[in-house]
Amino acid sequence: MWTMFMVQSRGCMPFSGSPMEERAVLKDTANKSNKVLKALFPTKSLDLLARLSRDELVELLAQEPAQCGDDLEPVSAEEELKCIELSPQQDFEWDELVETRDPVVDVSDDVNGLSLALDNNSSYLGISSIKAIIRVIIQIFPDAKTWILDGNSPAADTFQEGPRPVDEALLPDEILCINAYFTHLHNNNPLVDEEAFRSKHLNGPHNDSRWIAFFNMVLTMGSIAASDTRNHAHFVFYRRAYPHMNLESLGAGHLETVQALAILGGSYLHYLNKPNLASVIIGAALRMAVALGLHLEPAHNPENISKEVRLLFETRRRTWWCLFYFDTWASATLGRPSLGRWDPHCITADLPTALGPEDLGAICLRSSVEFCKIGTAIQDRFARAPLISSREILAFDAQLLQWELQVPSQLRELEAKYPSLRAPCGLLRSRYLNLRLVLHRPRLLISSLRRENRAVQQPEELKVIDTCREIAAATVQEIASSWFENQISAWNAVWLLFQATMVPLLGLFSGPDHEEVPKWRQSIEKSLSLFYEMRDFSLTADRSHEVVAKIYEASKKARMSPLNAQSGVQNAWTWAEDQFWPLQEEMDWFSFPEFGGVTFDTEFLAGANNQGSH
Fold first, then answer.
1. Mind listing the pLDDT tens digit for each residue in 39-51?
2. Which SS3 state, helix, strand or coil, does residue 552 take?
3. Residues 65, 213: one domain?
4. Which Gene Ontology cellular component terms are annotated (predicted)?
5. In which domain, by residue range, is 307 found?
């Protein structure tokens, strides 16, 4: 029989009991002790641990992969995702009702991360979401949660009952709104036949429900493009369209209904920060479009059809591909599967055809569609297990780089000539950088969770991480040079800028001594300056500035904290203490041969814990 002693902080006591009880206790003790050791040192053998000194054990602990929650098994990359993705067991729900909230006040949603609400009662978001980055920051440095949320005033606490009233006598002229729509929005998503639309408007009025919805959604977005954030005329036009886009409207399929839903779900609801509702609406529009056969190329011979029918076919194609474009971009930062958005065997609609040498919308949309096909493949890969590898990321990135080289030179040349191309071209460049950022970010998150030393990382992993940070910096510079004082430009710029800025913010927590820290700080401070400049042209600019500033200040506190100096050792010991001390109350701890002579010394554990707090 082994000689065993109970190790307690008050001293040693011999164990007494029957042989069977003694064997059962030994077995249970061995299992629990082994579990704790594996949690602390998942990649090291017990023989190695037994030979290390106290200081060496503390140093080794700082190099071990991060641990998540109550799971005491060695952590893989997939298991680490559980730290930053809510599981299906969570109560996913959200409330984005437009009619009951003031869109000017309600600038935060559970997707854009501006509410800083990280608990459940939100929609499901995957690893490509903004919330994933915030969760990693808090996982690395738990005290950051308190600092970031200190004085936080999410929009949920400031909702006003219903939208603000607008004097309809002060509404902008309809022609002004129509002109603004075709100047600032049409070339980015050319689903409206401009000539036919203007002609029908001038020959009006028309009382059919689908036209009222379609016409007023164009006015809704046009009024936004023609004004700054102090003008709320868009909500009046939206309320005119709203009754004609209810469930009954889904019972009668028509091209104009699809177009109205596309503008609502593809643009306006995102402007109001209602991304989940937008996703639902675009889903309905896609289903109606399929029912209308928009995804199929007509079998008619183009030589035997009239100009009017040819233009109708082109509008159908453009509407389909605009839906494809809207759904891809809306899903890019949600981390949700595409559910078969793109299948070349089922979708036969031709790409948009330019109706003339200066058909700018067709040129932009063709480039966007090819880009979105790559984005859809990336999105579907993110939704599958295992976690995307560095090699896969580099392969996808090569496709994106090749796409960028093939962007028509005509588009670049026309941008300087036509002001209406300024917004879509700037947005296309920024979204190209954003998709590359989203593609590289998962490996950055995992590396940050583990706080890995660059010396032990594989070359491919290092390339992905470094590229992610370079893209974030390039995005800030691109937005600084391309945005202009218009709501359509600033609205998209703020969202993309916020995503890019989260990367250097994460770096300040995961690598506070990294040689690139000065560059990260410079990039963050540039973003703060841009948010301030955009405040009159973006509903979310002020809140984005506030959230970035909070996290930035928290990173400075974290750097000065003694916990940070321990490179995560303190947090690891705190976690170990939470797991270890409850077991002490249940059972006695022993030294026995299975563990190579490793003895659990509670004074050592407590000393290491206290050492990190000085």
1. 677 666 676 777 7
2. helix
3. no
4. nucleus
5. 167-354
42 burial via Cβ count (<10 Å: 0-12, 13-18, 19+) = middle
Answer yes or no: are the C-beta atoms of 225 and 183 closer than 8 Å: yes
CA distance 503 to 555: 13
Contacts of 15 (CB under 8 A, 6+ apart): 4, 5, 6, 22, 25, 588, 590
Instruction: Answer whether 15's CB lies under 8 Å from 608's CB.
Output: no
Distances 78 to 88, 135, 462 between C-alpha atoms, Å: 15, 15, 19
The answer to whether residue 275 sits within a structural domain is yes
Q: What is the pLDDT of residue 114?
A: 76
CB-CB contact of 330 with 270 (8 Å): yes
Give the pLDDT confidence of 305-360 residue by residue, as tens digits: 888 888 999 999 999 999 999 999 888 877 778 888 888 889 999 999 988 877 88
Question: CA-CA distance, 349 to 354, in Å (whole number)?
Answer: 15
Q: Is residue 401, in this structure, part of any structural domain at all? A: no
Q: What is the mean pLDDT of the segment spanning 9-26? A: 57
Q: How many domains does the chain have?
A: 2
Residue 122 has pLDDT above 50, yes or no: yes
Stated as kind and residue range, the H or E segment containing 282 is: helix 275-291
Please give the Cα distance from 391 to 437 (Å, whole number): 16
- Token pair, residue 210, equals 């689908």
User: How many other CB atoms are there within 10 angstroms of residue 246's CB atom?
Assistant: 11
pLDDT of residue 563: 52
Same-domain status, 64 and 208: no
First to last CA, the chain: 44
For residues 278 and 266, what is the distance between their CA atoms, to the nearest angstrom? 7
3-state secondary structure of 8: strand
Quote the pTM value. Answer: 0.76
> What three-state secondary structure class fits 339?
coil
How many other CB atoms are there within 10 angstroms of residue 165's CB atom?
9
Which residue, of 354, 385, 405, is where some domain finishes? 354
From the list 414, 426, 298, the residue with the least C-alpha distance to 353 is 298
User: CA 369 → CA 228, 327, 397, 426, distances in Å?
Assistant: 30, 11, 17, 16
Residue 443 lies in a domain: no
Q: Which two tokens stand for residue 39?
A: 């949690």
Structure tokens that stand for 300 in this block = 């008619």
Domain boundary among 354, 389, 417: 354
Assess contact for 184 and 423: CB atoms under 8 A. yes
- pLDDT score for 403: 94
Give a yes or no: residue 330 inside a domain: yes
Q: Cα angle vertex 375, ends 221, 397, to 5°?
A: 130
